[in-house]
Design goal:
globular; 14 helices; mainly alpha; single chain; about 280 residues
Length: about 280
Amino acid sequence: MNFLDILLHYEFLQRALLAGVLVAILCGMLGVFLVLRQMSLLGDGLAHVSFGGVAIGLAFGFYPIGVALVGSVLAGVAIYLLRDRGIVKGDTAIGILFTAGLALGILVVSATGGFTVNANSYLFGNILAITTQDLQVVFGVGLLLVLLVYAFFKEFFSMTFSEEAAKVTGLPVGLLNVVFVSLTAATIVVASRIVGVLLVSALIIVPAATSLQIARSFRVAIALSVAIGVLSVVAGMVLAVQEGWATGASIAIVAIALFVLTLAGKRVFREPVVEPEHPHG
């Protein structure tokens, strides 16, 4: 059976594809802001922090994504406050919370019987194990993200290119940064369910970095980032189902391949440099 036949016959695959596409849209939107603000490390750091929440949820019988959402949002806000108040630099704050979250997760898992299938699925991703409850969470987070980005698009756009200029114009930069970091944390948690904590950058960063190679405007960059993310998820899932590969890794490999092809295409099709004519020749 080919992928389409399998998709039509199995509800779990339909659920996985819908969740993957939704997450790709969210990551594509937010990723452009993160890359342009040079906050890519924040995304990766919060992904590892989320594993601590997942481990606690699994160990004590709570819904893992719910615990991870709360923990990651709190960690994101803590990172911003540590940086904003000058206690430590931004990358140092990320490193501290990154280590704390991952260490907590490993400690909890090891203390409760070692790594289980569920814990591994959050580390490495297992989109095919998406439940109806997971899909509802993805949809809820996605709706909230889209509404907030739409409502504060001009403000986020201004802050992306110059926080100082945004402050001068009277924008509540501190509050907006807390909102932005919270959105980032929530998006990363649901993305981790798709590709895993260790590969979350594949959906958050790579599509955005790819689109910024060729986009000529901010809105076009977001649209392309979303399209590349969706293509990565769909193509990765097809490969995973047809070839029996790991879904998270397949999605990541497709995203990286599109980035490499885009760079190669730019080199091949870039406009030739026209040498100016000599005034006397």
